[in-house]
Amino acid sequence: MVIHGGAGTILRSRMTPAVEKAYIDTLTIALHTGYEILERGTVKIYKD
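User: That's the sequence. What structure does it adopt?
Assistant: Structure tokens below.
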């Protein structure tokens, strides 16, 4: 599974702890959601 954290460059040195936590929390939600989809037997959720 691949999750994408956004486009562009985000320098950690310019990111506040709160913003970094928000990114990590959101990516974690995406990962868990993707895992749940795969657990249901869906292997592809978009059309090429």
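The chain has one domain: 14-48.
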